[in-house]
Write a structure and sequence with these properties.
The structure is a homodimer. Chain A is of the alpha/beta class. Chain A has 17 helices and 17 strands. In chain A, the strands form five sheets. A seven-stranded mixed sheet of chain A has the order 4-12-11-10-9-5-6, with helices on both faces. The first copy, chain A, has a four-stranded antiparallel sheet with strand order 13-14-17-16, with helices on one face. In chain A, helix 3 crosses helix 4, helix 7 crosses helix 12 and helix 14 packs parallel to helix 16.
Amino acid sequence: MENSWATFGRDLHLDLTGPGGVRAALLRALRDAVRSGRLSTGTRLPSSRSLAADLGIARNTVADSYAELVAEGWLSARQGSGTRVAERAPARDATGPARRTPGPARPDDRPRFDLTPGRPDVSSFPRTAWLAAARRALTAAPSEAFGYGLPAGRPELRAVLADYLARARGVRADPDRIVVCAGFMQGLGLLSRALGAAGSGGAGRLAVESYGLSFHRDVITRAGLGTVPLTVDDHGARTEELPALDAARDIRAALLTPAHQFPTGVPLHPDRRAAAVNWARSTGGYILEDDYDGEFRYDRQPVGALQGLDPDHVVYLGTASKSLAPALRLAWMVLPDRLVDPVLALKRTGEWQSGSLEQLTLAEFLASGAYDRHLRGMRLRYRRRRDQLVQALADRAPHVHVSGIAAGLHAVLDLPPGTERSIVQAARWQGLALEGLSTFRAPAAPGPPRDGLVVAYGTPPDHAFAGGLEALVSALPPDPGRGAATGARA
Amino acid sequence: MENSWATFGRDLHLDLTGPGGVRAALLRALRDAVRSGRLSTGTRLPSSRSLAADLGIARNTVADSYAELVAEGWLSARQGSGTRVAERAPARDATGPARRTPGPARPDDRPRFDLTPGRPDVSSFPRTAWLAAARRALTAAPSEAFGYGLPAGRPELRAVLADYLARARGVRADPDRIVVCAGFMQGLGLLSRALGAAGSGGAGRLAVESYGLSFHRDVITRAGLGTVPLTVDDHGARTEELPALDAARDIRAALLTPAHQFPTGVPLHPDRRAAAVNWARSTGGYILEDDYDGEFRYDRQPVGALQGLDPDHVVYLGTASKSLAPALRLAWMVLPDRLVDPVLALKRTGEWQSGSLEQLTLAEFLASGAYDRHLRGMRLRYRRRRDQLVQALADRAPHVHVSGIAAGLHAVLDLPPGTERSIVQAARWQGLALEGLSTFRAPAAPGPPRDGLVVAYGTPPDHAFAGGLEALVSALPPDPGRGAATGARA
């Protein structure tokens, strides 16, 4: 009879060695298994016949041992439900300090509304379409796909990505210059190490935007490179300053967010796109183009990837974390030819490869058009939220300037100087999680800090968006001129 | 009408800026897209109406542009199949050197039979059961599962692993001391760095078995630690030598394969298990237990994990690479409490987390009993192959001593001294890929080298096993005494 305990003796380690006969050993082994928690309360034991067969001992020995353990209170036997580990078996051994609870913080620690940036509305993950793609991909996959794969990633995914990136983002991509990685951070780490190793004398520096993510700067620093902030203004990063910065310090590359500066939300001005590429071209440096949300643009003319201007000097970095879900841990780099081998050499000795089945599933998801369909749906949804945000501000806080709304999953609301910290804090007290611009300011950034809120309208699930918007509007500072205006009108 | 080109203007980057009117810009943009390969041969273009709507231009402008490009040979229009990129469109721009073909080597470069170790029979991956588990897991998953996860891994998987490892391998596991990682190598890298950082003065060393995998030793070396070989004999690694080695050099930990030494195949003798744990306990060192194939044992009494003897001094490392497939990139460590925070701190700044959806799928696969069922089936299959190997040797090469057959996916065939290299080479010439023991010998290993073949009977798909076995038997050296014996009998 096939049942899940047929090979109990093999699946549960029972050590029948030691002093005494087989019966004593079996009793000891079963007691140990219960005491240590290896057999947990309520677990059903195999029939005495099948355990006896598995262990190669007499059935009566097992039956007698069961009976004795029932008598001792370790096991319980009930008609029709077999022999199980008793409810009140002696307490499990302590094997360390008190358990830490894994998983997210307790619900009451979490904010009611979350408008912090960094992830899309994960409640909209296309579970059904993804599973359908997984089914098609795994059914069609050759056997070798289940073995070890290439550090560059599955050829199927790289081929489909090359087509998709060319079509959707204007990237000039060859599958051989694509490296799939487990998230943007892994890609940036590999690139930083490759660029650090490439230079002669000293580890060199990377220019970063004066507003950006601190953990991106940390990845660069851990790779042994310094960071130099590049001022961000209303036209994006001042890339025209790269030559002067480079003359003073050894700049290997500049990490930019050209399509939608993170966090200020502005696109990089065409002149500055040209300046960035010109600097890289004339010095042999690189632009690292972080295209984290390039797929989400709400105006008619999308901004194509900078990489299209010069694939030999721009590294394109894209990710499924914003377009699908961070949980997938899938991102991709399109590398200049010179960087392919150094990056793969580093990847081979460390991260090696991402899971092949997820890669094959994403390839199928892209090839079948499901990715385009999902993006279209999400674009409509995020645009509607963006419009609701803009409308709510126009109605209830017209004095607050909003920017960065042409694209992406977040916008920036300017605040009066010196007020950001107290507004973020007050919002948190009221259950609304927000980030201020100061969170993203590079330590040595030039110029005065800018006060503002980074409002990630893409983050909450649909049902929580209206509430989050209401909480946001309530948290904003009052119009300084409003009392007078109201008075004048009255 | 919903079709995959409805938002062509958005999904295909068309830049309509530049000199001339809209029509000239559209012509230029479409030509560029075809020339660069962003629109590939045969791709169907959207209807003129929908592209016009997407770009916000007149329909006639699009229709005229299409007609002109058809006339120029860029596009082709056929009744009922719409407008497509023409078969003989002008050649795609070269964007780099000649393409390297991604993917495995050409079939004719590959051996006909592969008996090299390192992976299971991947043709037996349980695709249907895995997909069913994925469906259940993704359907039931909370939304937060699609966001960023914990560096330790999904709580669902750690909880199920703790139960499974206790039950099947005698591991004393608490979910809070489990860290899920993307393969054994990642785990070993994290541990090596944590152990290197923990010591005072100098980076210290790790004892490794004198026969083992070179890329494991490399991971340790790259973390800044030295390696010291520990002689492997018929009873496994000589762990009783650890105290003397440690006195001479600063040994932080010993990396062992207690259940089934890789590659020699012997289990670690009980006295040596005790010696290993005693050394770790008395010095504050650690045993790193690589339980790569612990689930595959063919004798009645499985060898439980060493970790059960002392969870505070033994790190247990398990993996899905041999039990399911390397492609999953899922492995797990059960850590002593002291190592949990240092390892997670390192993981947080680097690899962060493995894909959550694969983790949830594995959790469901384990919890549903599918993992046990798969292992039972594979155990039977591998045992049958093992028996066939032993039988074939008994029949056809009784002079060849085989060992390491009680467990795992490979066995070792002893060879006359000095013959290994030529036998491996000759087998390769005949299309049979094999590894010799010398491949796995640590550089500074003491004692004379041992000549032998590591025969991975677990590697080939079922249909290729008999052929591989035949090729193996043919490749073995003849019995030196056989001529005489045959003569005597005749």
